[in-house]
Amino acid sequence: MLGSEDRRQLVRIANLYYVEGWTQGQIAKKFDVSRPFICRLLQRAKDNGIVEVYIKEESIHTIEMEQQLKHKYRLKDAIVVSTDGLTPEIAKKAIGQAGAYYLSKNLGNTKQLGISWGTTLSELVKEYPFEQREKVNIVPLVGGIGTQHVEIHANQLAYELARKMNGTCSYLYAPAIVETKELKDYLVEIPDIALVLEQGKNVDLALISIGNPYAGSTMQALGYLQDDDLQQFHKMGVVGDIASRFFDWEGNMVNHPLNDKVIGLPLEQLKQIKNVIAVVEGTHKLESLFAALKGEYIDVLIIDEQSASKLIKEK
After folding, report:
1. What is the pTM of this model?
2. φ, ψ of residue 39 in degrees (nearest 5)
3. How far is 299 from 272, CA to CA, in rounded Å?
4. Is the pLDDT of residue 58 over 80?
5. Greatest extent of the chain over all pairs of C-alpha atoms, in Å
6. d(Cα 247, Cα 250) in Å, to the nearest integer?
7. 250-306 pLDDT per residue, tens
8. Per-residue pLDDT, 84
9. Contacts of 303 (CB under 8 A, 6+ apart)
10. Where are the domains of the chain?
């Protein structure tokens, strides 16, 4: 068990090496110790979870796929992750890791970062390294309170990501979907809720995932979606959701009562955010993702290789 002073020393050395770019020799000279001793301390920092190392796997094949996706769907960027032979759980972790790596390297001068909710984004947050980004504030883009699957709610993800960045976060103290439109209209006028919703409209960057209401749906597991809703969705051509907002084959938000009860960022406002990163895993989300791309909600796509291949072949 590390003492507080030992941990502080490891953090200082790891920060010099991994963040500020000092060599092991320079660090050894600063602390008047040998270079092998610094090497051992850096390994100790890894062993104690102070430092997490990410490997960005690239091949000619995946790089070509990334370029094809960017061209076909007019994306700013695309990252294709090889998940061949991995279980769904490990594949989702790999996508989360790639998303964490990409976000860390591309935050730039981001001051306000919005985040939606879900299991894939939860993996991204888990994989995100501890950094010093005190000027970043994380904003939940959709409500989420209750006792079920709290670890994937937007508020919780905002808190955990802010903790990893040593930044701050806002809290949207409301459910994702409420019982009636009247209740939603009342809640969004409450000053604390209205403030966070306004922040969500003005974030510099948004992290989202895509949901398929018919397969592997977390919203269905949480009880937000009932069988009657799904039957109506089929009739209306609903194919997916972003931040609990449901859309059709063309990427247009549908006129369904559930969309009127959501406390969070509307899809038309998501389009106004200058940089939206979608982190998506699984071919069961292909129809949903294709519609979201048609709706032009996504600027950067981080996706598994199998799904990327099918998207490229899509007519």
Report:
1. 0.81
2. -60, -45
3. 11
4. no
5. 72
6. 8
7. 999 999 989 999 999 999 999 999 999 999 999 999 999 999 999 999 999 999 999
8. 83
9. 69, 78, 79, 80, 81, 95, 280, 281, 289, 311
10. 4-47, 60-313
Q: Which CATH number fits the domain 60-313, given the four candidates 3.40.50.1360, 3.50.50.100, 1.20.1440.230, 3.40.47.10?
A: 3.40.50.1360
8 Å CB contact between 50 and 130: yes
User: Quick one: which of 310, 315, 314, 304 has its CA closest to 88?
Assistant: 304
**Euclidean distance between CA atoms 262 and 245, whole angstroms:** 7
Which residue shows structure tokens 């919005």? 114
Q: What's the pLDDT at 144?
A: 78
Written as six digits, the tokens of 288 are: 């949903």
More confident residue, 140 or 219: 140
* Nearest of 222, 289, 262, 235 to residue 73 by alpha carbon: 289
What's the rounded Cα separation, in Å, for the pair 197 and 140?
8
Question: Long-range pairs for 8-13 at CB < 8 Å and ≥24 separation?
Answer: 9/41, 10/41, 10/44, 10/45, 10/48, 10/50, 11/45, 11/50, 13/38, 13/41, 13/42, 13/45
Structure tokens of 313? 């072949």
State both tokens at 203.
């974030």
Q: Is residue 134 classed as helix, strand or coil in its secondary structure? A: coil
Classify burial at 80, counting beta carbons within 10 Å of its beta carbon; exposed 0-12, middle 13-18, buried 19 or more: buried
Between CA 248 and CA 292 the distance in angstroms is 9
The answer to whether domain 4-47 has CATH 3.60.150.10 is: no
